[in-house]
Amino acid sequence: MATGRVTILTKPPETLIIASAPVISNTEVMPGTRLLWLEASGVAPSASPGQFLMVYCGRDTLLRRPLSVHRVDGDRLALLFTVVGKGTRWLSQRKAGDAVDIFGPLGSGFTINPDSKNLLLVAGGIGIAPLRFLADVALKEGKKVTLIAGARSAASLLPVSPPQAFFNEGGLPSNIHVVNATDDGSEGFKGLATDLIPAYADGADQLFACGPAPMYRTMAQMPELKGKPVQISLEIMMGCGMGVCYGCTIKTGSGLKQVCKDGPVFSLEDIVWEELEI
Amino acid sequence: MSPDLTVQLAPKHEHGLLLANPVMTASGTFGYGTEYRQVFDVQKLGAIVCKGTTLEPREGNPQPRLFETASGVINSIGLQNIGVKTLIREKAPIWADWQVPVIVNIAGDTVDEYARLAKELDGVAGISGIEVNISCPNVKAGGSAFGAEPDSAAEVTKAVKAATSLPVLVKLTPNTGDITKVATAVAEAGADAISLINSVKGMAIDIIERRPATGNITGGLSGPAIKPLALALVYEVAGAVELPVIGCGGITNSADALEFIMAGASAVQVGSATFSNPHASLDVLEGIEQFMEKEGIESLKEIIGVGRG
Q1: Chain B: nearest CA to A135, how far in angstroms?
Q2: Is B136 a catalytic residue?
Q3: Four-point Cα dihedral A35, A40, A43, A44, nearest 10
Q4: What chain B residue is nearest to A249 in terms of C-alpha separation?
């Protein structure tokens, strides 16, 4: 179509950053689980809840490890991870002053609907990692957040309290309600986080969950969640983190999806549980 | 003056395939090139080889598809791809605006499928060449079965050459008896260049679950673990054929790439290193340039094959 108008083709912005991020602190906050705060000026401000970073984990690893953004504070961000193998072990040994090579922010994260008032967050174990960031953002947006946090025992529950900035900005502490569940009953409800969902689902406009696959399978069967908008975050081995290697492909109701690019957040009802091999 | 990095990949071809530099991306590790525009200016590369493409879209293999090994990774993707029609409709128009040549990697189950793919791609704006994948270890029919024997490798090459006017690269598998026989057969069948190696058939077992660690039982090993093996095969093939050879296999940095070039490769492909370092291909290119400047090498041609001994 010759309209005589000049179309200026701009080069796509190089929005994904590979950064050498100085370690601010690296502390064991629960047995085997560490909280790593990084100085990440290029990455932190553009990260949104549910997104992840591909983190270089030393010379003994070839692939970067995908880790959810756990918290963001200005130019700083935190990762919460459990030490499960050589990569996370290497990462657990980084000290203040070291640098960690991060790539991101990657993936499609959680979506909070503007008209949602009450959000129910369900964390299974280390699944608290992305949900903490989501809770912080939701509270900032004036949402009421109920967090069901499940863990093996009291020692594995992450204390969740809003950051000082939340209070500084006039946030209402009454907007966050945390319900703990432990397998052994050492803290809060004795049982699984999912056992508590029916009691809280009714008042929730949206649900957000992160935890092991069996937790999602249980949720997929719950009559209380039928028709409810539920977003879940999937964990899977990844190669590239940006949709080129097809290592993390899963089948969904809307076709093949790559967890790294199309996810890691998916709609619960979109996952074909019978076919999910993770 | 900055050194001359240009490479003619298809000297026998009537139009040739001139690259601004010898650094290419390996198929399956760089998507369609478009994705990495978010990370760096991909047009600085010598060429981009896109994901292996079949006539129809493919779903690929069951999970798990990746398993990390010592200095390597086993993949069992199984050629999941969008199919040639979608590629022509959605990707080629983007490539048509690029300076960097894009080479389409093709895979078929039969000789006829390879020929049909080549025909579909012929004359499509944005596509500068074809890389014939007769070396994928992760598909049941076709794939590396064609690359294992000189006769079948030659047959596929001939069929593709007859179906297209584009320069044709043929990518070889290391999983064959004497790779120089396959390379010679492919050269005689009309290939314009030979790239090697594709990933090496490999396996891992999950001892807790007591089953293979990847969904298709065996997979393709790539990464630094295969570099010495790849280098030796590139050395052998470069000594056996007159065609340009493109070295691939475990290249992580410019020193690795220079080893391949000195073994006789005219160009290199950076593969799974991109996963560890998304900038890897660009870093390799910059490193080669710096090496040449430091060593006073004016043209890349001066060092191709100089390390063969």
Answers
A1: 29
A2: yes
A3: 60
A4: B63
